[in-house]
Amino acid sequence: MLIQIAHFLAILSTGLFLTTFVFSFLFTKRDKNITRLISRIYSHAFLMLTSSFFIYIWLALNDNFSVLYIAQHSNSQLPSFYKITSIWSAHEGSMYLWIVFLCLWGFLYSSYSPNDNILKARTIGVISLIAVGFLSFLLLTSNPFETILPIAPMDGADINPVLQDPALAIHPPMLYLGYVGFVIAFANAISFLINGDKSIRWEESVRIWSISAWVFLTVGIALGSWWAYYELGWGGYWFWDPVENVALMPWLAATAFIHSLSVSSKSQLLRIWTILLSIIVFSLSLFGAFIVRSGIIDSVHSFANDPERGLYLLSFTGILVFSSLILFSYRLPLLASKKLITSFSKESFISINNIIFGTLIFSTMLGILYPLIYEYLYLQKISVGAPYYNAIFVPATILACIFLFFSIDSKWQRTYRIINSYTSMLFSGIFSLAITISVMLYFVISDLWILVSLFTGLLIIIRYLFVIFEFLINKKYSNPYSIAAHIGLGLLIISISLNSQFSSERAINIKINGDDIYKDYRIKFDNLELIKMSNHDSVMASFIIDSPSGKTFVLNPEKRKYFTRGQITTETAIHATPLKDIYVTLGDQLDDGSWIVNIQFNYFIRWIWISALLMAISGSFLAFSLRGTSR
Amino acid sequence: MKAIRKKRLTTVLFLLLTSGLGTILIIKALDSNLDFFFTPSEIFAEDLPENKRIKVGGMVLEDSVVRDGTNIVFQITDYEESIEVEFNGIVPDLFKEGSGVVVLGYLFEGSIKAEKVLAKHDENYMPPSLDIEK
């Protein structure tokens, strides 16, 4: 009965979202009461959708295996936490969550944005339309409420063991909150374009929403990277897998967008760019949903899927994007600003870096689509790997950082004379160069790109340290959020270059009680235990590792066999220090009883996620400081 | 009026030129970094250079896996032709004789020196080019 209620509520909410959409476009007269009415209908639709989702969580928690989806992805032996997270472990449930989040952002917007906002009614209308599109997709092609009749199975088929992990449990919700959060900016932009009154300052009111969404997206991507690092056993943090790339593209676009947004909300400049970017960010988020769920690409992350879904998503996304772009080009003459951007102003630097962001997005898109085009044209399967992305991303990022470096003291709408911050620039350059050269000589690094990246990262951090110094001494105002986020960027670049320079690995063949030495670390294979857990058996090895500095620690990598699916997984063991991770994975046992063990030294890898976290924290403080601006 | 048009024309031309140049550079970077995907029969059918990184997909031939310490040698097959693969390191959990595998590496003296051995995280996985035969 509960299943039918949840299903019915979802259908009902679809109807109400449709009503909201129709009303918002029917009543063209912008009146406070009409806006309030539309907000109310929307809130009720959202309330129904959320109730339906909470009932669904309840069903999953209580092992209601007459729901096909829950029977396929959950299991009575699972801890309660994973019973809930199993909902978003596959296509139907994760789409459901995606839509609930989409509507949640709309709900927050409708509650916080004042009713005298002229754009509000239509913005809610656009969000409702998108909700209707995706809810119909969910209910028609991938219904999570489908039941097994007449008799429910005794137990569920279980969630994939590699997904039974806290980081992965919260990674999709974070990522989805990020993706769909840009719907507010997108819908506002569309509403603004339809309205056509260029005196409306929509940019200011969407800043807080867009920055919050960007924070979620950043955290979501970082969590996914962290999970892949310790769970997949490859020791890397980014694999340029298509599914990672479809998350990276909206992030790049969103980063460009929030920069452009800060220009447009301060002056009338870059408004066209900002609108275009808001359309691009949301389109790329939808494109991500399409790629992951359509099955057109090979990836370890993609869901099992069928072409019908892909076609629906592609058509809906296509129509949405094309009509937005047509509307955009129709209103283009209206938006064109007579004012030109002053050269060497802050706007000019942001524009240049927006172009670089655009190039990166284009290259990533090409990397994803090229194999499809190539196979179609030449009937030859190819894949595009890390070397291509490195060839594009490394030089482009360095270039962007150099523009960032010069932009630091620049002013809004005023030409900036480099001479004014001549000393701090010069000294940042000298310090960075000195550090880079010392590192190069001491560690004998010959890779030019690594040295240049290291130099650029240092340049940014040291330059910002000067800014902080000037703030403390001369009380010269600077934007603290920008400082923290950009120091995060510098740190990210340094960590990535040092990680790729110093990290190393070796597979060793070792017997129980035997030992081996890798890079002055003595590794002793102490013990092997068989452990029985509630849903898996585990072979756990104990390695005693003596570091050259005299410290001793124990690492316990495992191999697990899960009962319900018979799947074998490898659990890595990691000893984390600020400088490096010692990362051990257990391989196969050979006929003579010895084991293959992989030892990796991953340098500065923690700092990669710390940098991302620093950016996210700066973003959340900025969003917090903007509260009250959502009007 | 004419001056404005001329200025617009130069701007458009400049934009086209730079974006065109950028695209050419990106495609060039793309073309020199592609990994081609082959089945063992295709490797024997085509004359492949040894310094090109390739991906080979197929099944691990039954009774072909030989381990020596951390080295592993096995035959990868599409049930028509087989080619030897050499790898040093840990093979994935799903790697076993008779199941699907993809290796990334270089052709060297008639065998493949693998840099990476991948098995899909799905028990039902089949290399796409083998789907039809089975």
Characterization of the model:
The complex is a heterodimer of chains A (631) and B (134). Chain A has 631 residues and is an alpha+beta fold. Among the domains of chain A are: 1-160, Up-down Bundle (Four Helix Bundle (Hemerythrin (Met), subunit A)), CATH 1.20.120; 505-605, no CATH class. Chain A is 63% helix and 12% strand. Chain A is built from 18 helices and 11 strands. In chain A, strands 3, 4, 5, 6, 7 and 8 form a 6-stranded antiparallel beta sheet that branches. Chain A has a 4-stranded antiparallel beta sheet with strand order 2-11-10-9. In chain A, strand 5 and strand 6 (552-555) form a beta hairpin. In chain A, helix 5 runs antiparallel to helix 6 (120-141). Chain B is α+β, with helices and mostly antiparallel strands. Chain B folds into 2 domains: 1-34; 36-130, OB fold (Dihydrolipoamide Acetyltransferase, E2P), CATH 2.40.50. Chain B contains 2 helices and 7 strands. Chain B has helices at residues 2-31, 40-45, and strands spanning 34-38, 53-60, 66-68, 71-77, 82-88, 100-108, 111-118. Chain B has a 5-stranded mixed barrel. The radius of gyration of chain B is 23 Å and the shape is elongated. At the A-B interface, helix 13, strand 1, helix 14, strand 2 and strand 8 of A face helix 1 and strand 1 of B.
Can you give keywords for this protein?
A: 631 residues; alpha+beta; 6-stranded antiparallel β-sheet; 4-stranded antiparallel β-sheet; 11 strands; flat; B: 134 residues; OB fold (Dihydrolipoamide Acetyltransferase, E2P); 2 domains; elongated; disordered C terminus
